[in-house]
Amino acid sequence: MAVKINLFYNQAAAGWSETYYASTNDPYTLVNSLTDRQLQAFVWFRSSLTQFYAVRASVVGSPRVSYSRLLPSKFYGSNALSVGTDTPDVVSTDAVCKLTGVARQVRRVFIRGLPDDAIKRDAYGAFVPSSSLTKGLDSMLSQIAGLGWQIQYYQKPAGGGITKYGLLLISPSTDHGNWTTLKLNNAAQPFVEGDNVVFQKVPTKYLPRFPRQAVVKATGVSGSFATISIAYPMLTTSFAPANMQVFKRTLLYDPIAQLDFERFSEHKTGRPIGLLRGRSPAVQLSR
Amino acid sequence: MNPCGRVVDILRSAYQVSIRAFSDDPEKVTQIRWYRARPKAQMMPWASSFGSRVWEERDGEGQEAIGEVYGTSQWRGGQIPSAMPTGGLCGSERQWQQGATAADPIPATWPGTNIPVCCSKPERQDLGGIALGGEVASIIIEKPEGGIALGGEVASIIIEKPEGGIALGGEVASIIIEKAEGGIALGGEVASIIIEKAEGGVALGGLDWNSFDNDATKGIALGGDAVVHVRKHDVGIPGTYDLYRPFGAATPTYTGVDCTLFEDVPTGRGQSPINTVVWTHYLETDADTDILDGCTRTDAVNTLNYADGDEIRIPSSGTTRYVVVFVSQADPGDGQVTRAYLMRHSA
């Protein structure tokens, strides 16, 4: 079983996260076993305003158990801000890095919160990361690899194609009030309980907030057709979609083995984590 | 289950959402609200299924049997919704991860709140206002109109609805001013000053430990080295009493019973224009003490029929006589006692 790891950073009025995966089913132990030295490796090369704010881990699958750990306010970047009006140290400036797994799977991450002095071009216009940034990315990779953190990817069909199944009927489940049963236009059952499935051509007008992806909660048979159940509380009667399809998606994980700087970029950042937005009239909740 | 003020998860925005909390009744949903934890609040001691799903929803996972219900959230401001505990934890690791069951017991709540007693006793909530301070633990200002609170190493300053009120504290443990109009509270090394509903009241504390004024109108309280200044019926006189049954009996039924006597005319008197005195004092004694009032009630009538209860003489062997008006059980804070309301008969 895998755990999703979110690393939360704040810088002034912005906040962002980086996502990795690990092979465990115990998010509490994973988060709390990170040492100060390991945590510092993720932030020291960033700007002095960047704070490593929290670590969160959640099980990918069911039950989706999660744990968040607010970090003490000592994990800051160590690189001073740039001096001068031509280097504004905007938080949206980031380094695009390529993560490559042992199985050669690739995923890109945006490393943000960098001082603008770390972002330069050479005489030919090529991006040149500063020595501090290069050293920081190396130390971060060293920790990621040492921790066995992974990237998530979808399994590509061996036969070069995805088998999609049409859906004949969508009905409230008779077994569970918050489930919906879907009748496949297929006699043999292609799925097993726990499979990740993806839906296409969902008629949202008739199926509001129907998930694009879901986990198969149960399998069955209806007449001569296979059925699957997913967690979607269907409040109306049965519905026959016109072109809706479903196919299986398999999540796999590849331990990170390599991190390569590719280029600098601009990436939109959200609000800070933990500093809740806005205020509204306080309302007393009834029990 | 209740996190009792612990940090359950981290968010960018707070919201209200339905959750499924019962493993044996997935149809049953409960409303929860995410709000801002206090600084340095404790973390949860284990992982749970009740973390925020805003970090998971985009992963395309299905709706879980336990936890937040997708599509039911409404954004909220993140303020503390009601009284807030500062410690403790309700629920087991199993319940936080697998959900509660209908058979799990529901703990009692702290009086006047919806906080279960497995949490620590809740503190007053803090909302807005102006606070300037050094190492301040908490400053609470509600609806001040021109109110100012300035503190150095302040543990807590609470000002509610003052109009022009001022509270200045040095090493202040707590200053509470509620509904003051023009009230002033100045404290040096003050442990606590509480002024409620004062109109023009002034309280100045030097080395006061405590100073309380309730419902003062143009009242003044000045404390130098005073330990406690209380303008209310909070201090009792310990002693013993003799009990005569019935009232007026020639010989006592019990003698030398330990008690604490409280003067309580301000509470026991009626309101204008009647001004009837219902009781003048009350005593507190051991919970199992034999002491009787004479009140009865007629069926379908919501008033008591008064009759003399036991006669009490305080001090024991003295001549000051009281009649027992009403007897009840109470817990003033250090255990259950029998409380007998008395009307003085003769001095």
Concise summary:
The complex is a heterodimer of chains A (287) and B (347). Chain A has 287 residues and is mainly beta.
Question: What does this 3D model show about the protein?
Answer:
The complex is a heterodimer of chains A (about 290) and B (about 350). Chain A is mainly beta and about 290 residues long. Chain A has 2 domains: about 1-155 and about 250-265, no CATH class; about 165-250, Beta Barrel (Elongation Factor Tu (Ef-tu), domain 3). Helix content of chain A is about 10%, strand content about 40%. Chain A contains 3 helices and 17 strands. Chain A has a 7-stranded antiparallel sheet with strand order 13-12-16-10-11-15-14, with no helix packed on it. Chain A has a 4-stranded antiparallel sheet with strand order 2-1-3-4. Chain A is elongated and about 70 Å long. The mean pLDDT of chain A is about 85. Chain B has about 350 residues and is mainly beta. Chain B has 3 domains: about 1-115, no CATH class; about 130-230, no CATH class; about 235-345, no CATH class. In chain B, the strands form 5 sheets. In chain B, strands 5-7-9-11-13-15 form a 6-stranded parallel sheet, with no helix packed on it. Chain B has a 6-stranded parallel sheet with strand order 6-8-10-12-14-16, with no helix packed on it. Chain B has a 6-stranded antiparallel barrel with strand order 17-18-19-24-23-22. In chain B, strand 1 (about 15-20) and strand 2 (about 30-35) form a beta hairpin. Chain B is elongated and about 85 Å long. Residues about 125-135, about 145-155, about 160-175, about 180-190 and about 200-235 of chain B have low confidence and may be disordered. At the A-B interface, strand 1, strand 3, strand 4 and strand 13 of A face loops of B.
